[in-house]
């Protein structure tokens, strides 16, 4: 039963993270007028699909990502290539309105040709030889379709292609995926803050054998001063304790309407955030009581989102630095298998922790996608910045080659990380 719960939780977490990321891309793409033929969650064979307007929504078998296929983004391959035999339907201007790739159709007055040359991005034409061995040049109509498996897939005219949009539209479309992940993190933390409440300066539970308990503080005590600093919120407590470090200090609390002062020494706690980097903090050893309000959860959500962003950013910088210092290990990376293992661990502790994990994974997905690797959003944003600065796009063959190399690199890393995760957790 626990296995099924973990599988269900993993599917939900993975589905939410990828759906939000890809929806961000599609949201801005469609507002820029870019045609999006497919919105996919997962990779590999299609297991479920439905069409809405011009977009086919699919769920695919392998939980290793997702994508939005945008017309003219340089990543899609048209289904028609030179040497293929296809059937075409023409309008009164002898422009192609339908390119028929199978026999599951009811079109009449169609022609069969062997494709000799074609361009579905810039020239928008097909040259082919008909049954009389005559060569013809056909322009593709502004509204035209591929017909495959009984479905109509619209061929994007130039004004609907990513390539021909302005740099700011391309930038927004590419940046929107990570942006929506950051927004998801913010929404989840705000939602949790409204549900759980926000921490106060009043002590709730005390940790055994920690400074607060040893100094004689009680549940219900309200911290009003640390050293010479007056305390009005929980973050001030954390900041002041980390400033004091392991030095003895006075803590004043309000108990039963009276002030009581105790002396204590904060405890040093080290938390490993990467294989080579640890984060040091100082604690008193208590959990604050929470309160519910209308405004504070909004502030708390922003603060926790920024804190999560700093945490993940520090880990990524440490990861990159380790490549040059020789401390790199694939144990520092997590693929789908590693995420499954984390979900399996966290799901046993309750839904709240699963939501917190999802928030962290979301900001992690956003930041990782902004790395300047050609196949990722960050790498493609660099191409757009080049176009904006030099007022011309990078040579398409060069850009395609760089993206292809980047895609192979990402694929190899994904395979190695997945195999390492399998060995680490299951073998």
UniProtKB/TrEMBL annotation:
The chain crosses the membrane at residues 171-195, 311-330, 350-371, 401-419. Its main location: membrane. GO terms for biological process: proteolysis. It is found in: Membrane. It holds the Pfam family Peptidase_M50. GO terms for cellular component: membrane. One of its GO terms (molecular function) is metalloendopeptidase activity. Residues 9-412 form the Peptidase M50 domain. Keywords: Hydrolase, Membrane, Metal-binding, Metalloprotease, Protease, Transmembrane, Transmembrane helix, Zinc. Belongs to the peptidase M50B family. This is Zinc metalloprotease. It comes from Staphylococcus lloydii.
